[in-house]
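Hi,

Apologies if this is the wrong queue. I'm a grad student, and the batch job for Sigma non-opioid intracellular receptor 1 from Ciona savignyi produced an output file that my downstream script rejects. I'm not sure whether the problem is my script or the file. Here is the sequence I used:
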Amino acid sequence: MGKLRTAVFVISIYVLLHWFNVIKPSYVFRANLVKEIGQRESGYSYSHPSIRQAFRNIYPKHILQEKYFPWISSHTGGLDGSIAVLYASLHEFLLLYNAEVETYGSTGRHYMNISVTVLRGSMSASQEGSTPSTSLSQGENTVFRMGTSSTVKLGQKTTLLVYGRGIVPLTSGYWISDTIFTQHDPILALTTMYLYFKAVVLSNVWLQNMVAYLWSVASMGITKLWKDVVYHVSQLPLLFNTFVEYLIKSWYQFTDWLVTTSDI
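Support response: The file is valid. Your script probably expects a header line. Output copied below for reference.
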């Protein structure tokens, strides 16, 4: 119980810091550009490889390879379909959702904003309460806001481009609960979580570089680490001089601003 309390405490603090903008994550994708690409690639000319390539042309280092992240079944909130992950991190995800047969369900209530663009087929959504249903066809977009929940109906052979921003790990219960308790498929649930964490590692360029560096240190031994330490220490004088030049330049800019202000 001690470890569970610690985990709950850490997660709660993280959520609060995120809520009050103490933690300001940087995002890889621009939401408007994701929407634009989705609308451009939608319609009768849509294909899974083409939209993946469209994103890879703009974000070559971040879009995951399909051979490592194939389509897998997805049972979430009553919706039955399949997903293909294009990108995933702790604060952001991009995926394709495909429903071959008509399906109904709930979006769930998440600590994130989720943008959905219909690539083909149709979608109807009604927010909780007595909100009238909104129908979307190919090329149209809607956003499910943080903390809200909607009932969704997907038509036969519907494919969606789904882009989310928020704390992604907090949505894990939504992605696997139906799979475990309704479909009784723990293997699919474990596969889903495995692919997510794998995507987090492979989508994160900085993390990839860190793993590659640690692997090189492990392979080459302490000599590699010592050479790097010596190199970075030798760069300290240059770094110090650059910093001093920056301070001097900033001081001159500040004095010029004071002179300009006094002349007004």
